[in-house]
Design goal:
2 copies of one chain form a homodimer. Chain A is of the alpha+beta class. Chain A contains 13 helices and 10 strands. The longest helix of chain A has 21 residues, at about 315-335. The structure holds a DNA duplex. Chains A, B: Pfam families: HrcA (PF01628), HTH_DeoR (PF08220).
Chain lengths: ~325, ~325
DNA sequence: CTTGGCACTCGGGAACACCGAGTGCCAGAC
DNA sequence: GTCTGGCACTCGGTGTTCCCGAGTGCCAAG
């Protein structure tokens, strides 16, 4: 039985605990929020909430602290995403507008998010498999080597050096380049393997070995980048917050691309604002932390995700507002470029 | 007056303090190292060393701790760089050998160094101004836009999107590309501005506005990257070590490209192994840390620097050995590619 | 110059008492 | 039935005191 007042009490507990970082007691609650009832009544409610697992006592005779389950209820039913102030929105806009290329967009985004939320920001590079080929370039470096550059419509550039078995002159390179571009231009990266499967047969016999070498490198570069690149910033913000779990574990997780990847990405719905609270998180070592993430991408299609990581005890409405806003602005920027 | 025995005492103090992280007293010294004299004698020596500023007492009636000046003397005169073990060398080699491009080399290097030294590793991307142009590519994106790509001999790729005022067809792009490459191929980046200064005049009048736009972007991309890119890894290693100064300051410094840059780069001699100890370091907030850095680069020429940052109380011989070894191997890898 | 002896210092840990915020429970009021 | 004031109880955190021992400086003798 969870009536309205109990929910109000839970909300008050979460809010107070988030702002003070100290277990909150019945008396303080009655004073700071006008719930219209006495501390004793609140105590009764708290006893019920505790029994149901929404709050807990660090030890007897201390105030209550929200549990992960309590935060979850708070996020789901008791709070609203808090929109940013006008000044903040303008700051985001002007800060992101100055970006010169994709790297720059990502770097600015992650810093912005870290600064805005005063927490650790994490940004995944746009997933290559959702992008399309905009151009393929072959650049001869010397007789036996050429550099292969793949440019996608998200502005991403993949480069590889290809070692060739035989000498190849500029004309043949130009021809290969033309064939490749004709074949791949505008084609989704996911379908590249299909498109190039029969390509060698359509070339003069002499060019086939070279083409095969290049294609293998091309395909490899696609697979390779399946381990998506992820960057983070704002680690300094961890220093202030004291984690129940060691700071070391958190820092280690942050440097593990794979872990970060799954933190952001392991969700079915890319577009929604997802919140993962404390133990909902699959990784030990990140038990005391929550993740707020959102998808972003150009043209309505979600390409990748970004988010922040902070202590479970975070201001969810504000954090969610910041993440959502940044995701939207980045999407705009990407769509425009 | 610093006789040999006093130096031996200082060395013993540094070694013991580094390994135990506790102020070291005269008795312990006499036991652990066979200096052939009694604790009382050592006390006298210690009193002299303290007076000269090489060691200090955290408080009366505690052991001695090396000062920055003491570490400096130790590094300069009392220790030798410790070579890596064969196993470590092989590990480095095989780990770096798998790199596919410049980004990958840098990323692997920084991780390797962090793991090897158990400290924070910092790697600067090869300085573009020491590189040469290998190829310039212009890729039409649509009628009003083209992507400009600059490839250097260090494998670095700079890309910019150029917005044009007028429609430009493929033939004119091809022509421009040819002219640009003819003019710039093999030319050092530093001399690019000179080389292109009179280029517009050598083109047909109709192409001049377009060329000017492209060139301005080109020049800007050179200047822009003067704020060199720097990456770090191993922040988790900071969690263990307790700094006299706050961990937060260190993390903040690490995320400030400019600060890192100067930490690594502010030295005249690129090739030497440089060590900056505690307060020798210009930045408050990094007082309790030391930096060990070395230059690296392909073909005997130093292109950039790499190093590690750790508590002043670090094992200098081992750290220096690791930094030197990694710098050498990276140079080899770069030279080969 | 080195050494053993000796008195002195002082940080850090253990033991202890105390305070007060906070709780649970109960009887009475609305 | 629900709320409220009262009351006894708990217990973490803080401040105090005390003591120990590592370490020192100094001095006189070898």
């Amino acid at each position: 039985m969870v009536d309205d007042r109990k929910l109000a009490v839970l909300r008050a507990i979460v809010e107070d605990y988030v702002s003070t970082n100290e277990p909150v007691g019945s008396k303080a609650l009655a004073e700071r929020h006008n719930l219209g009832v006495s501390p004793a009544t609140i105590r009764n409610d708290m006893a019920v909430l505790e029994e149901q697992g929404y709050i807990a006592q660090p030890h007897t005779s201390a105030g209550r602290v929200p549990t992960d389950k309590g935060y979850r209820l708070f996020v789901d039913r008791l709070s609203q995403v808090k929109p940013l102030s006008g000044a903040e929105r303008r700051a985001i806009e002007s800060f992101l507008a100055g970006a010169v290329d994709l790297d720059d967009v990502v770097m600015r985004t992650v810093r912005l998010l870290a600064q805005l939320t005063r927490q650790v920001a994490v940004v995944q590079y746009p997933t290559i498999s959702n992008s399309k080929v905009r151009h393929v370039e072959l650049v001869p470096l010397n007789e036996h080597r050429l550099m292969f550059v793949l440019i996608t419509n998200t502005g991403r550039v993949e480069q590889r050096v290809v070692e060739l078995q035989e000498v190849i002159d500029d004309n043949r390179v130009a021809h290969l380049r033309a064939v490749l571009n004709a074949c791949l231009d505008g084609c989704g990266l996911a379908s590249v393997p299909d498109m190039v499967a029969d390509l060698p047969e359509r070339l003069p016999a002499e060019d086939r070995p070279v083409a095969a070498t290049i294609l293998s490198v091309l395909l490899e570069s696609l697979v390779d980048r399946h381990d998506e690149k992820i960057v983070f910033a704002g680690a300094a913000n961890l220093a202030g917050a004291d984690f129940t779990v060691g700071l070391r574990d958190v820092l280690e997780a942050l440097e593990e691309q794979v872990v970060l990847m799954r933190l952001l990405g392991e969700t079915s719905d890319l577009s929604a604002l997802t919140v993962r609270i404390g133990s909902e998180n699959p990784y030990t070592g990140l038990q005391g932390t929550s993740i707020v993430a959102a998808g972003y991408g150009s043209g309505g299609k979600q390409l990748a995700r970004l988010g922040v990581l902070g202590p479970t005890r975070m201001d969810y409405p504000v954090t969610m507002g910041a993440v959502r806003a940044v995701a939207r602005y980045v999407s705009q920027i990407l769509a425009a470029s």
